[in-house]
Amino acid sequence: MCLGVPGQIIEILDPQLNTALIAVSGVRRQVNLTCVITEGVQPSALVGSWVLVHVGFAMSLIDEDEANKTLQLLAELDELKDALQPLQ
Question: Which residue numbers in the chain have pLDDT < 50?
Answer without folding.
Answer: none
